[in-house]
Amino acid sequence: MKVVLTEDVKKLGSQGDVVDVADGYARNYLFPRGLAVEATKGKIKEIREKEAKKERIESEKKEEAKKLKAKLEAEKFVLKVKAGESGRLFGSVNTKDIAEAAAEKGYDIDKRKVELTDSIKTLGMHKVEVKLYDDITAELNVKLEEK
């Protein structure tokens, strides 16, 4: 019997695959657990359309992330902080501060997407990475100035 998997099934296939299984396996295991539906022409067509729509949405998100990356890398974000004589900060700049600086310029960046390797504790220019999408990362130019 041909079935369309609605979820990933170990040792059988992943969601959306059309596989050939024994009738009893399909009736007694896959169908009752909602892991598969019978493969009719209508179901196969419906699943293919869903996959195409999902791929189209993913490609649109990726394009938006690429455009945002170009805009972010062209910007210069300035943070005013308290610092001592030698240029060391009283405290440090964290991901929340960087996300707020981006929000002031109109960019919606989640603080959890900002990747700091070390805390920033000195005045001057710093490069900070922001993960925008799966494989797209922007490098922000953050300048710390004394208040």
From TrEMBL:
GO biological process, one term: translation
InterPro entries membership: Ribosomal_bL9, Ribosomal_bL9/RNase_H1_N, Ribosomal_bL9_bac/chp, Ribosomal_bL9_C, Ribosomal_bL9_C_sf, Ribosomal_bL9_N, Ribosomal_bL9_N_sf
Coiled coil spans: 43-82
GO cellular component, one term: ribonucleoprotein complex
Domain (Ribosomal protein L9): residue spans on this chain: 13-40
PROSITE patterns named in the record: RIBOSOMAL_L9
Keywords: Coiled coil, Ribonucleoprotein, Ribosomal protein, RNA-binding, rRNA-binding
GO molecular function: rRNA binding; structural constituent of ribosome
Family: Belongs to the bacterial ribosomal protein bL9 family.
HAMAP family: Ribosomal_bL9
Main function: Binds to the 23S rRNA.
Protein name according to UniProt: Large ribosomal subunit protein bL9
Organism: Halanaerobium hydrogeniformans (Halanaerobium sp. (strain sapolanicus))
Gene name per UniProt: rplI
